[in-house]
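User: Structure please.
Assistant: Input sequence and predicted structure:
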Amino acid sequence: MLTLEAVSAGYGPTQALRELSLTVSRGELVCLLGANGAGKSTALKTISGLVRPSRGRVVFDGEEIGGLGPPEIVRRGIAHCPEGRRVFPHLTVEENLRIGAWVRRDATVGSDLDRAFSSFPGLAAHRRQPAGTLSGGEQQMLAIGRALMSRPRLVLFDEPSLGLAPAAVEATFAVIRGVRAQGTTVLMVEQNAYGALRMADRAYVLETGRVALAGRARDLLDDAHVRRAYLGG
């Protein structure tokens, strides 16, 4: 479904990705692990069009998307749930959800909005409330719901558990498992390596913008380097 072929990208003279290659098959949940500055978030931004690759190809469903802007990439079926939630704090919960469907022109946005409130009942009680007044866990649910409003076939999650209380982390991971169970493909950057590997099919470990290690998630849980560097021994 998604292939990065020797992709290099960065910010000005700084190269964050150095000939990065990876694949995500339809229906998979794949996670990206690595230290801060390894290029994980840049990889997601390059896929979603926020960063343009200087070299290499980004291919989605057989078509090159590396030169497209974010609106067109959303229309192609990719949604990006960014680090830090990035809800619009002064807009209501409902307005934030509707923004997720802004590229759509079909008549089913209203029914999808109802489905979002059914899927995230905690948000329904705050429907008219400014998003900035929600708790961190509620904002994460809102960010996920907003991403799903575009009806994506691939969702990019960037550090979905960052800054959340343990109960909210478990709730967030449960939602992501549910997204995948409904047939949506997931590529996730996650600092909670143990939690990510437990739910993923495969994983890539990035170091200085390159793949240092890749394999089945269950195998990486037992890998000595991964355990030492990311799982606390």
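Residues 2-230 form a domain with the Rossmann fold fold (CATH 3.40.50.300).
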